[in-house]
């Protein structure tokens, strides 16, 4: 039994000592995901907080089958969609975007990835970002997006082919 399994079992039985550990363990990666999917950092932080509040609120209804990470990303995805519906989207990042926060140490590669994927259809871009920016497995992505595994595989393959063509043409950025 993993530490995560033990914490989730305790939470189900009313013991909440491990809740903070669970949140701290997933907070950075959920924040990074939300930064990709919200208009700004403040909205991303709000989305992360709301994600964890929803998870806590609905913990009684959650049945743990070893897929908590995918469940957490699904809640974060829905929360970010709600934020986009409520707000007007911000302008896309420019190539010269500069961040000074410590959490953005990898911002250059993230901005490159964002610009490189800007021309992809949303469905392909989402699969690509979940796979390479968030390092989710294909099965986890299928669970998050509520898609068959084969669909996730074909979208990833199509996205990679489209990126390869962009790079070959030297047409990498919008």
Automatic annotation (TrEMBL):
GO MF, any single term: DNA binding
Record's keyword terms, sorted: DNA-binding, Sigma factor, Transcription, Transcription regulation
Domain (RNA polymerase sigma factor 70 region 4 type): residue spans on this chain: 113-163
GO term, biological process aspect, one: DNA-templated transcription initiation
InterPro entries given in the database record: RNA_pol_sigma-70-like, RNA_pol_sigma-70_dom, RNA_pol_sigma70_r2, RNA_pol_sigma70_r4_t2, RNA_pol_sigma_r2, RNA_pol_sigma_r3/r4-like, WH-like_DNA-bd_sf
Domain spans labelled RNA polymerase sigma-70 region: 22-88
NCBIfam families, per the entry: sigma70-ECF
Family, as annotated: Belongs to the sigma-70 factor family. ECF subfamily.
Protein name: RNA polymerase sigma-70 factor, ECF subfamily
